[in-house]
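Bench notes, bay 3.
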Amino acid sequence: MADILVPMIAVPLILFMIFVAPIWVIMHYRSKRKLSQGLSETELQDLQQLARQAEHMRERIKTLESILDADAPTWRERK
């Protein structure tokens, strides 16, 4: 029993350590390095554009809520 069980565990473990583990470690540290470098110029521009759009949407929502408050004061209570 033990002479069959050891190869059944050892062979997949050795294959994992030879093929999967090195790629896993390389990809892990590559992603860590990319995160530590910060945002690229295009990512920063995209983030700023999204922030402007969010601010614009916030203003529109505020305006729409004030219109609804004037026209239908109980609209917030509806579900």
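Next record in the batch:
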Amino acid sequence: MCGISGIIHKNNQPVNQSILEKINRTLTHRGPDDEGYFCEGHLGLAHRRLSIIDLSSGHQPMSTSNGRYTIVFNGEIYNFLEIRAELQKKGISFQTRSDTEVLLYAYALEGKKCLDRLNGMFAFAIWDKDEKTLFVARDRFGKKPFYYWDTPAHFVFASELKAFLVHPDFKKELNHQALASFFQYDYVPSPLSIFKGVQKLPAGHFLILKNGSFSIQSYWDIPLKQSKISPDWEESKKKLIVLLDEATQKRLVSDVPLGVFLSGGLDSSSIVAMMARHCEGSRIKTFSIGFEEKSFDESEHALLISKTFNTDHHHQVLTPNKMLEILPHIASFMDEPFADYSIIPTYLLSQFTRQKVTVALGGDGSDELFAGYPTFYADKLARIYQKFPHFFKQTLGFFVNHLPVSHRDMSFDFKAKQFLYGANFESVLRNQVWLGSFHFGEQKKLFVESTQLKDPLLLVKEVLNRCPSSDALDRILYFYQKFYLTDDILVKTDRASMAASLEVRAPYLDLNLVSFVSSLPPHFKLKGRVTKYILKEALKEILPSQIVFRKKKGFGIPVGLWLKNELKNHLLEILSPERIKRDGIFNPAVVQSMIKEHLEGRANHRKKLFSLLTFHWWKDNFN
């Protein structure tokens, strides 16, 4: 895995390589093994390398033999050997064993059409010297990041936002609409960034820059169009396992040590099971994180899978003190406010794993493909709830709001209150309200000035207009894959793993597997109350039944409890009335009311308070 960056001056002024070097060195953690530069007049490209395949000869930037095309590439192309063989038949002679060179020549021969057959995770930029054109592309789900900053004078790009801060012309101006979106989503959704002037290239899109201006186009969308004929159930289960097995096998290609994140849940356990088929003679290295609070801990399930497949298992416990110790570093590598608190165990797990291996496989993407979250069934219930008379809703609301607060993982009172919190919104939007911290009505009270802000949920409506299916579940899946997967789950994994110089691969996001699962009818994924129905049925002959059929836990941490105890002083200091008033962004009375209710046990404001803390950690770091 790597970090890429570049500068193009629109006035043809030569690039100052010392500035490019400063930008590139902010990305050292993404690629500690090597650095490279290519400067030609008004263009400069830079690269940081984490060596995974062809350790000796994959240096970047890399140019074609005739010097016309030059690439900087971050990612892995898992089908590069097939593409390489096809290109060799067309007369291409390769000098390395790297996927970078294959990608470079695929573009040289086919142009943007090469994107259609790339199976992997990537963000890359290719300079065409003859046409004076920069071509940029990002993988279908945005597993690899790409930020760009466009001004009248220059176009600058990088793998991470922090890279722009060292450019002498960059001004750190807060994008208030992006901030409002952060408090709605718990992350800053694409194409926004937290700084004015900087944007993210959306997943599944390419960008072409020529003569000082650029255009952006989509090259792929989630293939949710349904066949009129329902596929055979038994054949579908068999094909699913075949494709998952193939996807896992492709991701085992590496010239460095490799392992797997093992939570003990269905997704990571299935990856271990598939790996076991291809790792005969060697024990798979597995890694997990546990918690002292038992309702959040999955250690026993991880150990069960480890024993079942005889893995070399490594385990570590996350304590509140350890969390406080690593928080400052998390704020530094996240670049933008990010309030999914599973970033904390993910980073600790990545650090821990990197001590033994350089590459790890994980289960990211399964929940968004197979309708694995509890919210998918909750959405069904909400449609029924909306038909209830007003009096019944009032009575139910009174009862639920007076349930005693529990800080156990997914406690009944938390689920009931969250359900009512979003149930009256329209279908897909309520899913985002359930996921986020502050809906727009609450933001109007939270922000000192909110009159210029637009409802952040308008972005969801805009993206949903492109959904090719009219089915209710399909549209929710489309939302999760376009928003939560790309800008939360994959951002979390990328930043946490890259901060530890670890590459993480996601078999469930293999192109062939995604295409197949997307073509399945909705009732194959959610049947009654059973989420991930076909995946569970397909895996029940492979995994222990207590793994397949246990309730989803997720990678949560007991933040609500910690905020009342070990993190209480930290909370009161960071969100003190004096500081909130001095910053001038939030209403001090609203913030203090939430803190008081949480500490007194009258409400569980863990999501809201953690998002406010996250913003202030980020703000302190970037100031």
